[in-house]
Specification:
- This is 5-methyltetrahydropteroyltriglutamate--homocysteine S-methyltransferase.
- It is an enzyme of class 2 (transferase).
- The chain is of the alpha/beta class.
- It has 2 domains: 3-394, TIM Barrel (Alpha-Beta Barrel), CATH 3.20.20.210; 400-437 and 500-753, TIM Barrel, CATH 3.20.20.210.
- Helices cover 41% and strands 11% of the residues.
- Bound molecules: methionine and zinc ion (ZN).
- Residues 441, 611, 652, 654, 751-752 line the site of zinc ion.
- Methionine binds next to loops.
Length: 783
């Protein structure tokens, strides 16, 4: 019989319950026991949803309070000494690594957090030492949660991140130079001990994720699979059966690694992203190995096309037999919202097109039944075929006017009037900027009061005039605080924006919105991506009102703030019926009109944020990556190149997009050179990039690529409540000056400040501005 399986379930709960619990715990409003009880309640609820849906193989240890890689750091006792020496309670040490800790005389910044493959989820990067040791934590979490499930009546399959991926995704700590993969030998015994403990607890099988198999790996990493998995296989029946899971790409180029898994139970591959890998993968499996076929998309919200999935599963069954095939989600469902059932406001037509995590788990179960006994799910199959057909024929998806405008786009529309040097000369006179100009990235704290007023406005409890007046008051406050801080380029603070993508989506055609479809982005931070269902256009200006008002009350240049086309695309759930480049160009045209309107209304510094540009980069070098970079860069240029030379275009990138710490990836495949070349090609006058947790020497790539324009590498970690001292800012700036020219350096935080509190922001920015002034004085001859 064909079984069904889920690789992981979202953790946050129906109403972002986990976010609320975490934040209440951090604010000391609930006890540790309360937090742990809430975690348990969520885990049990999620197992039950899957069991009720008829899923055969249900995961455990997919839950994490903050991040699952961070869980593994603690599981292997691999916390850097600056955390472990604080003697914090384990859960507090855990959160200290995730978000920094500044309390009770302890002051440690967070570990670095970076994007998980090409997704908008962020993991905490294992940060390892030259003399790193590993051991199994007391009361290991995978065992504890397996037993918890068992006690509640669920026999689960624990999920572990594999040893090779753990190390390949790690980096050496500042001051260490170890290549993490060389630590494998020390790590293997910990997995051996853990697997034995899981077996002893009653686990029959485990899922070991080795997602790095979708990359082009450097030889040392490839070679690591053999010793790692031979040690695991040698455990025989002392360990649970092992299924190695890969996702977000194909693994065909790494087939030479597969012999390392020969004695394991089987392999999971992503057939949503790469259905064409099915045939070659089938040929690679050993005579008794199983295939876990990922046919239900863990990364998007579209209803599964059962017919397509069933065809793939039938092909696998024909080759292996029904007992050796498992119907699975393509990846963990972490990247999808909890349940469609919460959506009461979607148009009925499109509601039918979607499937969130709680519906996807039913889909895997239905597909498994469909290949075993189609009669038993006849009604479901018919209904599915009808919706798939209805969506493809819906008028909602197609706007001929948008298509017409796209057909008329010219190459000239992508190019600014003059080169950077001559533009900059005009901007300098126009904007009167000092050396080391200080600015922020756009948002200021989204206070409780802002949320309350927005809510009231959405519910119709206050009028538009009242809401606008409130927003103007918030802008006044932001301007006044920037006056006090003495920043050089102001922002209006984005109080009117619920979210940097949703806000724009709500002002464009082609989008629909959910009310509860939250997805975890990092830690307790969740996003609610809007959904692109049809062709996109801009009926009216989107940001002019607020920016114009802000400029009118400000004595310094006011930066207009837009979310770039690639980010609007990537942080929405995109259509799966039209190529992403087409959707992106539609967004670019809408933003182009907005940029020009801002300029017409007296905004002469315009920042177009593209934090998702790096995340969207196809994971392997080659034609797909080149094509992506071309259309992504073109979209940005199409959006921004319509302005005068004297208008300064900024762009912003966060989450360490530039520097590729992936020690596991072969040098030729490192992404930073590609991305730097692409960033240079954007032709933005000023870039701000997240950098506060990275080693400044990585900025050397800008020298290597002789980057001519201006850059503000972030000096303030906005993910952490910590307020860095002035000395710390000076230290960062002087490190940067080893790699960047004083005349090209801007001083700014890593990213927007919406998640911070005002007192933190004021404290940190005061120190930041003072540090900038210190260097301005030192370098005054070069002004
Ligand atoms: C994730 S990038 C965020 C940029 C945006 N302008 C902000 O300041 O919030
Ligand atoms: Zn950012």
């Amino acid at each position: 019989m064909v079984q069904s399986s889920v690789l992981g379930f979202p953790r946050i709960g129906v109403l972002r319950d986990l976010k609320k619990a975490n934040e209440a715990y951090w604010a000391e409003k609930i006890s540790q026991a309360d937090l742990l009880a809430e975690g348990k309640r969520l885990r049990i609820a999620h197992w039950k949803i899957q069991k009720d849906a008829g899923v055969d193989i249900i995961p455990s240890n997919d839950f994490a309070y903050y991040d699952h890689i961070l869980d593994h750091i603690q599981l292997f006792n691999a916390a850097p000494e600056r955390y472990s020496s604080q003697k914090l309670d384990p859960i507090d040490e855990y959160f200290a690594m995730g978000r920094g800790h500044q309390k009770g005389g302890v002051d440690v910044p967070a570990l670095e957090m970076v994007k998980w493959f090409d997704s908008n989820y962020h993991y905490v990067k294992p940060t390892l030492q030259d003399n790193q040791t590993f051991s199994l934590a007391k009361d290991p979490k995978p065992v504890r949660e397996f037993l918890e499930a068992k006690e509640a009546g669920f026999l689960t399959r624990p999920v572990l991140v594999g040893p090779v991926s753990f190390l390949a995704l790690a980096k050496a700590d500042r001051g260490s130079s170890v290549d993490p993969i060389t630590l494998l030998e020390k790590l293997i015994p910990v997995y051996v001990e853990l697997l034995k403990a899981l077996k002893a607890a009653g686990a029959e099988s485990v899922q070991i994720d080795e997602p790095v198999l979708v990359f082009d790996l450097k030889p040392e990493v490839k070679a690591a699979f053999k010793p790692a998995y031979e040690a695991i296989a040698a455990l025989g029946s002392a360990a649970p059966e092992v299924v190695v899971a890969t996702y977000f790409g194909d693994i065909v180029h790494n087939f030479d690694v597969l012999p390392a898994f020969a004695s394991l139970k089987g392999l999971h591959v992503d057939l949503v992203r790469n259905p064409e890998q099915l045939e070659p993968v089938l040929k690679q499996l050993g005579p008794t190995q199983i295939l876990s076929a990922g046919v239900v998309d863990g990364r998007n919200i579209w209803k599964n096309d059962f017919k397509k999935s069933i065809d793939l599963i039938q092909t696998a069954i024909a080759a292996l037999g029904a007992d050796r095939v498992i119907v699975a989600t393509s990846s963990s469902l972490l990247h999808t919202p909890h349940t469609l059932a919460s959506e009461k406001k979607l148009p009925a037509e499109v509601y039918e097109w979607f499937s969130f995590a709680s519906e996807k788990v039913k889909e895997v179960a239905i597909i498994a039944k469909a290949v075993t006994n189609p009669e038993s799910v006849k009604a479901e199959l018919e209904a599915n075929a009808a919706t798939v057909k209805a969506r493809s024929e819906s008028a909602r998806t197609n706007d001929p006017k948008v298509k017409e405008r796209q057909a008329q786009v010219t190459p000239e529309q992508h190019i600014r009037k003059s080169t950077f040097d001559s533009r900059y000369a005009q901007q300098k006179t126009h904007l009167k900027l000092p050396l080391f100009p200080t600015t922020t990235i756009g948002s200021f704290p989204q206070t409780q009061e802002i949320r309350i007023q927005r809510n009231k406005f959405t519910k119709g409890e206050i009028t538009e005039e009242q809401y606008d007046a409130f927003i103007r008051k918030e802008i006044d406050l932001a301007v006044q605080i920037q006056d006090e801080l003495d920043l050089d380029v102001y922002v209006h603070g984005e109080p009117e924006r619920n979210d940097m993508v949703q806000y724009f989506g709500e002002r464009l055609t082609g989008y629909v919105f959910t009310t509860h479809a939250w997805v975890q982005s990092y830690g307790s931070r969740c996003v609610r991506p809007p959904i692109i269902v049809g062709d996109i256009s801009r009926p009216l200006p989107m940001t002019v009102k607020e920016s114009k008002y802000a400029a009118s009350v400000s004595k310094k240049p006011m930066k207009g703030m837009l979310t770039g086309p690639v980010t609007c695309l990537r942080w929405s759930f995109p259509r799966n019926d039209v190529h992403q480049s087409v959707q992106c160009q539609q967004l670019a045209l809408a933003l182009r009109d907005e940029v020009i309107d801002l300029e017409k209304n007296g905004i002469f510094v315009i920042q177009v944020d593209e934090p998702a540009l790096r995340e969207g980069l196809p994971l392997r070098k080659g034609a797909e990556r080149d094509a992506y970079l071309e259309w992504a860069v073109d979209s940005f240029k199409l959006a921004t190149a319509g302005v005068e030379d004297s208008t300064q275009i900024h762009s912003h990138f966060c989450y360490s997009e530039f520097q590729d710490f992936f020690h596991g990836i072969s040098a030729e495949n490192r992404t930073y050179t590609d991305i730097i070349i692409a960033i240079a090609a954007l032709d933005a006058d000023v870039l701000s990039i997240e950098n506060s947790k990275s080693d400044a020497k990585l900025l050397k790539v800008f020298i290597d690529e002789s980057y001519p324009r201006h850059i503000g590498p972030g000096v303030y970690d906005i993910h952490s409540p910590r307020v860095p001292a002035e000395e710390e800012f000076k230290q960062r700036i002087s490190e940067m000056l080893q790699f960047l020219r004083p005349g090209q350096l801007w001083i700014n935080p890593d990213c927007g400040l919406k998640t911070r509190k005002w007192d933190e922001v004021k404290g940190a920015l005061t120190h930041m501005v003072n540090a900038a002034k210190f260097f301005r004085e030192q370098y005054k001859d070069q002004a």
